[in-house]
Amino acid sequence: PGYERLVSQGVEPLFLDTQFRAHPKLMDFSCDAIYGGRLRSGIDAAARPAVCGFAWPRRAAPLAFLETGGPKGGAAEHAEGESRLNRAEATRLMGVLEGLLAGGDVDCSQVGVVTPYKGQVRLLRQLWRERCGRPRQGGAARKAPLVPAAEAGRLEIASVDNFQGREKEVVLFSAVRANSHGAVGFLSDWRRLNVLLTRARRGLVVVGHQETLRHDPYWRRWLDFAARERVIVDRREWLATLRRAAASCDAASPLLPLLPLLRPLEYAPLTPNAFRAHVRASLAKEAAAAAAHRDTAAPLCELLSAAAAGWRGWAAEVREAL
Hints:
alpha/beta
């Protein structure tokens, strides 16, 4: 309000056209869609390496959209008084948070958990308290909680409005809205979207439901941007990628029997080293040893990259052309 009042009284605003906070890829969308291409990055990507502890779909673009499946996938929003919450999204986000902290690259003070609804803020804080107070299972012994109580209190879980002006190494966002009629509520405010997109320095993870969010024009543009960058994590798309990869393989290809081993995954980074690390961490030992072998990881990544881009093999392409 104060800013708008000054502008209305004739005070000319000064636009700061160079950002030094974030990895350039994290600012690409806002630069184009919000600032009309006027905002530049004054920092190199190498100065903002992707945070460890999360298998980024592409480390060159440290952002990810995690698709929940919405109401059909058991991840519908629910009313809480005058607010909203989404328990499935909150649980998914907590899993990502635990992985990031276990990775050792960031501590609680360097992570921001952001959501548009106070009901979701309360739920996330409750889940965080429960996880910090619960010992972890570690083989036959029970390990200490992932984060000591004193450290846990340094994690900032806040609404979008309360996060304005803040910045963190990595930001985790729960969109909450997931319904069959495309209602996005607070999320339709492009200024809130811009706050979300510009607070992270080295990584941004958004948890949400594409089908709902695409009813808003700005979210639709951001999701199209995320799709072009190939950072959307959607199990349905992963299974479709595996099917296209299988269809494009020759029957004698040594890669063909490896593809079914990857079905339990939701996705995999498609650069060899990241692929091997993710597969080893996610699959049973024997399956991981076969799929992540150093001699097959690179050609498997090439095959999956082509399939993710829509390639189904020459036979399918020729049939469609005819």
